[in-house]
Amino acid sequence: MNAAGYRYAASDQAFYIPAILRHLDPALFPRDAVLIDAQSRLIAFDELGAAIVRITGISIQEMLVGLYLVTLLLLYAGITRIASRFHLTRWTTVALAAALTLRHAIAKTGANTLESYFHPRELAFALGLLATGAFLDRRWALLPTLLVAAALFHPTTAVWFGVWLSIAAWARATRHRLAVAACIGAAAAVIGALLVAGPLAGRFGRMDAEWLEAIGPKDLFPLDWPLNVWFTNLVALPVIAFGWRARRAAGLLVPGETALVVGAFGLFALFLCWLPFNVAHVAIAVQLQLSRVFWLLDVFGTVYLVWMLAQGARGAGGANGAGGAVAGGRAAIVAGAIIALSFARGAYSGFVEFPDRPLFAVDIQHADWRDAMAFARTTDPASGWLADPLHAAKYGSSLRAAGHRDVLIEPLKDHAIAMYDRSIAMRVADRERALSVLAWNSPDGARALARRFGLDYLVVDTPLDLPLAHQSGSLYIYTLR
C-alpha cells in the first residue's frame, strides 16, 4: 500500500519488458533494438527473465508479479536476519520491518526503498541484505554466492554491497588480512577487465554538451543537489555513528558490527573519490550512479535509528526483570506506532492519492489502451508506431511494453537509456527536434513523421482525417502509409 499498489509495465519495466521480449521473439523491435541493447547488454536479467518464461510457460505478467512477491519476502528475510544478529528484541525487529514498509525516495538518486512494480534492483538489494546477514554469521561461502546472484539481477547494486562488505571483511580480519586483500584484489581485477575489455569498455571519455543535453535533467550530478538533499542523504552517517557509539558504551556490539560501520563510512569515502570524475562528466562515472550507495547507508542507519527508538541501551538487561519488561513495552509501543503510521500512509496512497489503483494490477489497467495494444500485437512485428510522447504516463504503460512494437519515442525511458550511449542520445535528440516542429497528432504532421522515420500506425485520442485501422473506445489507430 505504501508503494501505491503493484502495477505491471510501469516505469522501468518499460525497458525490462521489451528487453525480455527480444529474447523470446527476435523478430520484435527491429528499429528499437539498438536503443534497447544500449542498456540490455550491460545486464543479465533480460536473458534470465526470458529463460524463466520459456522454462515455466508462465506469462511475463505472472513472472514479474511472482518476482515482486519474492522480493518482498527476501527483503523481510534480510532485514530480520540482520536484526537477529544485532540481538534486537522481537518487538524491535517488528518495528524495524515495519519501518522498511514506509516507502521513500533516496533523494535525487532515482532509487526508492520500495517500488510499485517489480524492479531487479529491489531483488538485488534484498539479496545484498541477506549477504550482510551472512557476513555477520561468518558464512564466507554463502556471502559471495548471494552477491553473484544479486549481480545477475542488478550489477551495480551488487557491486555496492560488494564494496561495503569487502571493506568490512578487511576491517574484521585480524590474522587473515592478506588473504582478504588478495580476494578483494582478484574481484577488482575482474571489474577492471570488464572496464577495459568487457561490456563496459570504451566508457572513459567525457560526455559532451550535446550528449548531456539529450539526457536532460536526471539528477546525475550531486554537486547540483540543493542543501536539503545533501542533508537527507548524509543524515544516515551521524545516525550510524551515534548508534554504534551507544551500543559500544552499553557493551552491546556484536562480532562484525564495527566492521560494517567501517565499511559504511568506506562507501561514503568511495563516493567522495568518485565525485571529481562525476564533475568532469567522465561517462563511466556518470553511468555508474554511485550516489545510490546512500540507499545502503539509509537502511543501515534505519537499523540503528529503530534500535535507539525502540530498545536502546536500557534494553541490555534482557527480557527478564523490570528493565527487560520496560524495554519490551517501549519496543511494542514504537512498533505499534510505526505500523499505524505505515497503514495510515498506505491508506492515504491507496484511497486518496490513487483511489482508482488496485492493490495488485497484474495487467494493463487502462481498458482502451489495453485493447489498442492488443490490436498492435496483431500487426506486423516490423511496423513502426507513433503515439503521444507522454503516452506511458498517460496510459500507465509504454507502447513497447504493452504493444510489443517499435515507437518513435518514449521519453520517460529513452532519455535514461541515452545515458549509456552517445549515438542513442543523438537519436533521441533528433526525434525530439522533429516533434518540436511537426505536430504528431495532426494528419500532415503524422504523415511527415511517418515519411521521415518509417512509421506505419498512429494511436491518438482524437478523430483525424486518416484511414482508420482500429478503434478502442476513445482511442483511434490510423494507418500512415
Give a verbal description of the structure:
With 481 residues, the protein is mainly alpha-helical. The chain has 2 domains: 6-58 and 364-479, no CATH class; 66-353, no CATH class. The chain has 22 helices and 9 strands. The chain has a 5-stranded mixed sheet with strand order 6-5-7-9-8. A hairpin with a 2-residue loop joins β8 (468-472) and β9 (475-479). The radius of gyration is 25 Å and the shape is globular. Residues 317-322 have low confidence and may be disordered.
Describe the protein's topology:
Layout: E1 6-7, H1 13-24, H2 33-40, H3 45-56, H4 60-85, H5 90-99, E2 105-106, E3 111-112, H6 120-136, H7 142-153, H8 155-172, H9 177-196, H10 209-215, H11 227-234, H12 236-249, H13 257-279, H14 283-288, H15 293-310, H16 321-353, E4 360-361, H17 367-376, E5 384-386, H18 391-395, H19 399-403, E6 406-407, H20 411-418, H21 422-437, H22 443-453, E7 457-460, E8 468-472, E9 475-479
Parallel strand pairs: 1-4, 5-6, 5-7
Antiparallel strand pairs: 2-3, 7-9, 8-9
Helix pairs in contact: 1-2, 1-3, 4-5, 4-6, 5-15, 5-16, 6-7, 6-8, 7-8, 8-9, 8-13, 10-21, 12-13, 12-15, 13-15, 20-21
